[in-house]
From TrEMBL:
PANTHER family: FIDO DOMAIN-CONTAINING PROTEIN (PTHR13504:SF38), FIDO DOMAIN-CONTAINING PROTEIN DDB_G0283145 (PTHR13504). Its EC number is 2.7.7.-. InterPro entries: Fido, Fido-like_dom_sf, Fido_containing. This is Adenosine monophosphate-protein transferase SoFic. Keywords: ATP-binding, Nucleotide-binding, Nucleotidyltransferase, Transferase. It comes from Mycolicibacterium obuense.
Amino acid sequence: MAAATTALNEMIASVDRDVPVRMSAILRAHEALMRDDPTEGQHAGQLRTVQNWIGGSDYSPRDALYVPPPPDTVHAYMDDLMEFANRTDIPVLIQAAIAHAQFESIHPFTDGNGRIGRALINTIFRRRGATTRLVVPLASALVAHRERYFGALNTYRAGDLRPLIVTFANSSKTAAAESRITAERLTEIPAEWRSMVGPIRRHSAADKLLLLLPSMPILSSDDVAARVDAPRSSVFAAMKRLHDTGVLRPLTDRKRDQVWGASLVLDELDDLGHRIERASS
Protein backbone atom coordinates (compact mmCIF):
# COMPACT_ATOMS: atom_id res chain seq x y z
CA MET A 1 0.00 0.00 0.00
CA ALA A 2 2.85 2.39 0.84
CA ALA A 3 4.48 1.73 -2.53
CA ALA A 4 1.19 2.23 -4.37
CA THR A 5 0.47 5.49 -2.55
CA THR A 6 3.98 6.70 -3.33
CA ALA A 7 3.59 5.74 -6.99
CA LEU A 8 0.36 7.71 -7.39
CA ASN A 9 1.92 10.70 -5.65
CA GLU A 10 4.96 10.45 -7.91
CA MET A 11 2.68 10.40 -10.96
CA ILE A 12 1.16 13.68 -9.77
CA ALA A 13 4.56 15.15 -8.88
CA SER A 14 6.08 14.11 -12.22
CA VAL A 15 4.62 17.15 -14.00
CA ASP A 16 4.88 20.92 -13.81
CA ARG A 17 4.33 23.80 -16.19
CA ASP A 18 7.37 22.72 -18.23
CA VAL A 19 7.00 18.93 -17.87
CA PRO A 20 4.03 17.32 -19.63
CA VAL A 21 1.77 14.47 -18.55
CA ARG A 22 3.51 11.38 -19.90
CA MET A 23 2.20 7.91 -20.63
CA SER A 24 5.35 6.47 -19.05
CA ALA A 25 4.46 8.04 -15.68
CA ILE A 26 0.96 6.57 -15.84
CA LEU A 27 2.36 3.11 -16.64
CA ARG A 28 4.87 3.32 -13.79
CA ALA A 29 2.11 4.25 -11.35
CA HIS A 30 -0.06 1.37 -12.55
CA GLU A 31 2.83 -1.09 -12.30
CA ALA A 32 3.46 -0.14 -8.67
CA LEU A 33 -0.26 -0.17 -7.90
CA MET A 34 -0.99 -3.63 -9.31
CA ARG A 35 2.25 -5.65 -9.26
CA ASP A 36 1.43 -7.44 -5.99
CA ASP A 37 -2.14 -8.29 -6.99
CA PRO A 38 -2.38 -12.11 -7.24
CA THR A 39 -4.72 -11.97 -10.23
CA GLU A 40 -3.86 -8.78 -12.08
CA GLY A 41 -0.16 -8.52 -11.26
CA GLN A 42 0.78 -10.06 -14.60
CA HIS A 43 -0.83 -7.09 -16.37
CA ALA A 44 0.71 -4.41 -14.13
CA GLY A 45 2.06 -1.42 -16.03
CA GLN A 46 0.64 -2.59 -19.36
CA LEU A 47 -2.18 -1.29 -21.51
CA ARG A 48 -4.78 -3.97 -21.93
CA THR A 49 -4.71 -6.36 -24.86
CA VAL A 50 -8.11 -7.91 -24.08
CA GLN A 51 -11.66 -6.65 -24.14
CA ASN A 52 -13.06 -5.56 -20.79
CA TRP A 53 -16.46 -4.36 -19.65
CA ILE A 54 -18.22 -2.92 -16.62
CA GLY A 55 -21.09 -4.78 -14.98
CA GLY A 56 -22.92 -7.80 -16.29
CA SER A 57 -21.35 -11.26 -16.31
CA ASP A 58 -17.71 -12.13 -15.64
CA TYR A 59 -17.75 -14.24 -18.80
CA SER A 60 -19.40 -12.03 -21.41
CA PRO A 61 -20.08 -8.34 -22.08
CA ARG A 62 -23.71 -9.22 -22.67
CA ASP A 63 -25.90 -7.03 -20.42
CA ALA A 64 -22.84 -5.00 -19.36
CA LEU A 65 -23.41 -1.45 -18.13
CA TYR A 66 -20.59 -0.19 -20.33
CA VAL A 67 -18.22 -1.77 -22.86
CA PRO A 68 -14.97 0.20 -23.44
CA PRO A 69 -13.38 0.38 -26.89
CA PRO A 70 -11.63 -2.67 -28.40
CA PRO A 71 -8.07 -3.37 -27.19
CA ASP A 72 -6.47 -2.61 -30.56
CA THR A 73 -7.67 1.00 -30.30
CA VAL A 74 -6.41 1.68 -26.75
CA HIS A 75 -2.94 2.94 -27.72
CA ALA A 76 -4.37 5.45 -30.19
CA TYR A 77 -7.00 6.67 -27.73
CA MET A 78 -4.38 7.09 -24.99
CA ASP A 79 -2.05 9.01 -27.33
CA ASP A 80 -4.94 11.34 -28.12
CA LEU A 81 -5.71 11.70 -24.40
CA MET A 82 -2.09 12.65 -23.64
CA GLU A 83 -2.29 15.42 -26.24
CA PHE A 84 -5.49 16.72 -24.69
CA ALA A 85 -4.15 16.49 -21.12
CA ASN A 86 -1.20 18.70 -22.06
CA ARG A 87 -3.16 21.51 -23.71
CA THR A 88 -3.05 24.89 -22.02
CA ASP A 89 -5.93 26.65 -23.79
CA ILE A 90 -8.78 25.09 -21.78
CA PRO A 91 -9.96 26.02 -18.25
CA VAL A 92 -8.16 23.58 -15.99
CA LEU A 93 -11.23 22.21 -14.19
CA ILE A 94 -12.97 21.47 -17.49
CA GLN A 95 -9.80 19.90 -18.85
CA ALA A 96 -9.38 17.67 -15.78
CA ALA A 97 -13.03 16.62 -15.88
CA ILE A 98 -12.95 15.68 -19.57
CA ALA A 99 -9.58 13.93 -19.30
CA HIS A 100 -10.80 11.89 -16.34
CA ALA A 101 -14.03 10.92 -18.09
CA GLN A 102 -12.17 10.01 -21.26
CA PHE A 103 -9.67 7.90 -19.32
CA GLU A 104 -12.47 6.04 -17.55
CA SER A 105 -14.22 5.55 -20.89
CA ILE A 106 -11.08 4.12 -22.53
CA HIS A 107 -10.55 1.93 -19.45
CA PRO A 108 -7.00 1.24 -20.63
CA PHE A 109 -6.05 -1.31 -17.96
CA THR A 110 -7.51 -4.66 -16.96
CA ASP A 111 -7.88 -3.31 -13.41
CA GLY A 112 -6.92 -0.25 -11.38
CA ASN A 113 -8.48 2.24 -13.80
CA GLY A 114 -10.38 4.11 -11.08
CA ARG A 115 -7.34 4.89 -8.93
CA ILE A 116 -5.19 5.92 -11.88
CA GLY A 117 -8.05 7.95 -13.37
CA ARG A 118 -8.54 9.82 -10.11
CA ALA A 119 -4.80 10.51 -9.86
CA LEU A 120 -4.95 11.93 -13.39
CA ILE A 121 -7.25 14.71 -12.13
CA ASN A 122 -4.64 16.00 -9.71
CA THR A 123 -1.86 15.41 -12.24
CA ILE A 124 -3.56 17.89 -14.57
CA PHE A 125 -4.14 20.34 -11.72
CA ARG A 126 -0.40 20.18 -10.95
CA ARG A 127 0.59 20.44 -14.61
CA ARG A 128 -1.47 23.60 -15.06
CA GLY A 129 -0.31 25.20 -11.79
CA ALA A 130 -3.72 25.01 -10.10
CA THR A 131 -1.93 23.22 -7.25
CA THR A 132 1.73 23.17 -6.31
CA ARG A 133 2.08 20.65 -3.48
CA LEU A 134 -1.30 19.53 -2.20
CA VAL A 135 -3.63 16.89 -3.63
CA VAL A 136 -7.26 17.99 -3.83
CA PRO A 137 -9.53 15.14 -2.60
CA LEU A 138 -12.01 15.82 -5.37
CA ALA A 139 -12.63 12.10 -5.88
CA SER A 140 -14.11 11.80 -2.38
CA ALA A 141 -16.75 14.35 -3.32
CA LEU A 142 -17.36 12.68 -6.69
CA VAL A 143 -18.04 9.24 -5.24
CA ALA A 144 -20.11 10.61 -2.35
CA HIS A 145 -22.98 10.36 -4.84
CA ARG A 146 -22.03 7.47 -7.08
CA GLU A 147 -25.25 7.52 -9.08
CA ARG A 148 -24.77 11.19 -9.98
CA TYR A 149 -21.10 10.63 -10.84
CA PHE A 150 -21.74 7.57 -13.01
CA GLY A 151 -24.71 9.30 -14.58
CA ALA A 152 -22.43 12.21 -15.54
CA LEU A 153 -19.96 9.75 -17.11
CA ASN A 154 -22.76 8.17 -19.10
CA THR A 155 -24.04 11.51 -20.40
CA TYR A 156 -20.45 12.44 -21.33
CA ARG A 157 -20.22 9.26 -23.40
CA ALA A 158 -23.48 10.26 -25.04
CA GLY A 159 -21.97 13.63 -26.01
CA ASP A 160 -23.31 15.94 -23.29
CA LEU A 161 -20.54 17.48 -21.16
CA ARG A 162 -22.68 19.70 -18.94
CA PRO A 163 -23.55 17.26 -16.11
CA LEU A 164 -19.91 16.21 -15.89
CA ILE A 165 -18.63 19.80 -15.64
CA VAL A 166 -21.28 20.79 -13.08
CA THR A 167 -20.49 17.68 -10.99
CA PHE A 168 -16.75 18.46 -11.03
CA ALA A 169 -17.31 22.13 -10.19
CA ASN A 170 -19.53 21.35 -7.20
CA SER A 171 -17.20 18.58 -6.02
CA SER A 172 -14.16 20.86 -6.27
CA LYS A 173 -15.85 23.55 -4.20
CA THR A 174 -16.74 21.07 -1.46
CA ALA A 175 -13.33 19.37 -1.47
CA ALA A 176 -11.46 22.68 -1.30
CA ALA A 177 -13.53 24.00 1.60
CA GLU A 178 -13.15 20.86 3.70
CA SER A 179 -9.45 20.50 2.80
CA ARG A 180 -8.76 23.94 4.21
CA ILE A 181 -10.03 22.73 7.60
CA THR A 182 -7.90 19.60 7.39
CA ALA A 183 -4.80 21.59 6.41
CA GLU A 184 -5.16 23.69 9.56
CA ARG A 185 -5.61 20.60 11.72
CA LEU A 186 -2.59 18.85 10.20
CA THR A 187 -0.31 21.71 11.18
CA GLU A 188 -1.19 21.02 14.84
CA ILE A 189 -0.43 17.29 14.75
CA PRO A 190 3.41 17.34 15.07
CA ALA A 191 3.12 19.06 18.44
CA GLU A 192 0.58 16.44 19.54
CA TRP A 193 2.99 13.66 18.52
CA ARG A 194 5.74 15.07 20.70
CA SER A 195 3.34 15.35 23.61
CA MET A 196 2.36 11.69 23.12
CA VAL A 197 5.94 10.43 22.85
CA GLY A 198 7.35 12.48 25.72
CA PRO A 199 10.92 13.78 26.08
CA ILE A 200 13.34 12.68 23.36
CA ARG A 201 16.86 13.70 22.49
CA ARG A 202 17.31 16.16 19.66
CA HIS A 203 18.69 14.45 16.52
CA SER A 204 17.85 11.01 17.92
CA ALA A 205 16.22 8.43 15.65
CA ALA A 206 12.84 9.13 17.24
CA ASP A 207 13.29 12.87 16.71
CA LYS A 208 14.22 12.34 13.05
CA LEU A 209 11.29 9.98 12.56
CA LEU A 210 8.86 12.56 13.93
CA LEU A 211 10.30 15.10 11.49
CA LEU A 212 9.79 12.62 8.64
CA LEU A 213 6.17 11.74 9.41
CA PRO A 214 4.46 14.90 8.09
CA SER A 215 5.78 14.21 4.58
CA MET A 216 5.47 10.41 4.82
CA PRO A 217 2.55 9.42 7.07
CA ILE A 218 2.48 5.90 5.59
CA LEU A 219 5.80 4.06 5.67
CA SER A 220 7.66 0.82 6.22
CA SER A 221 10.72 0.14 8.34
CA ASP A 222 12.76 0.11 5.12
CA ASP A 223 11.43 3.56 4.25
CA VAL A 224 12.50 4.84 7.65
CA ALA A 225 15.92 3.15 7.53
CA ALA A 226 16.57 4.71 4.11
CA ARG A 227 15.67 8.22 5.25
CA VAL A 228 16.67 8.39 8.92
CA ASP A 229 20.41 8.62 9.45
CA ALA A 230 20.76 6.25 12.39
CA PRO A 231 21.67 2.60 13.09
CA ARG A 232 18.88 0.16 12.17
CA SER A 233 18.61 -0.91 15.82
CA SER A 234 17.91 2.72 16.76
CA VAL A 235 15.38 3.05 13.92
CA PHE A 236 13.49 -0.04 15.08
CA ALA A 237 13.57 1.16 18.69
CA ALA A 238 12.19 4.54 17.59
CA MET A 239 9.39 2.91 15.60
CA LYS A 240 8.51 0.70 18.58
CA ARG A 241 8.35 3.74 20.85
CA LEU A 242 6.09 5.60 18.43
CA HIS A 243 3.89 2.52 18.13
CA ASP A 244 3.72 2.03 21.92
CA THR A 245 2.68 5.67 22.41
CA GLY A 246 0.02 5.58 19.68
CA VAL A 247 1.78 7.78 17.13
CA LEU A 248 2.08 4.88 14.67
CA ARG A 249 -0.29 2.00 14.05
CA PRO A 250 0.16 -1.12 11.88
CA LEU A 251 -1.80 -1.19 8.64
CA THR A 252 -1.48 -4.90 7.82
CA ASP A 253 -1.73 -8.21 9.68
CA ARG A 254 1.79 -9.19 8.67
CA LYS A 255 4.45 -9.90 11.30
CA ARG A 256 7.21 -9.01 8.85
CA ASP A 257 7.46 -6.19 6.30
CA GLN A 258 4.84 -4.25 8.23
CA VAL A 259 3.45 -0.98 6.87
CA TRP A 260 2.82 1.73 9.44
CA GLY A 261 0.55 4.77 9.45
CA ALA A 262 0.58 7.97 11.47
CA SER A 263 -2.60 7.52 13.50
CA LEU A 264 -3.65 11.16 13.90
CA VAL A 265 -3.05 11.90 10.21
CA LEU A 266 -5.04 8.86 9.07
CA ASP A 267 -7.86 9.72 11.49
CA GLU A 268 -7.99 13.27 10.13
CA LEU A 269 -8.06 12.04 6.55
CA ASP A 270 -10.89 9.66 7.42
CA ASP A 271 -12.74 12.56 9.00
CA LEU A 272 -12.10 14.65 5.88
CA GLY A 273 -13.75 11.98 3.76
CA HIS A 274 -16.77 11.86 6.06
CA ARG A 275 -17.10 15.66 6.08
CA ILE A 276 -16.92 15.81 2.30
CA GLU A 277 -19.58 13.12 2.05
CA ARG A 278 -21.89 15.00 4.43
CA ALA A 279 -21.29 18.33 2.68
CA SER A 280 -22.03 16.73 -0.69
CA SER A 281 -25.43 15.40 0.36
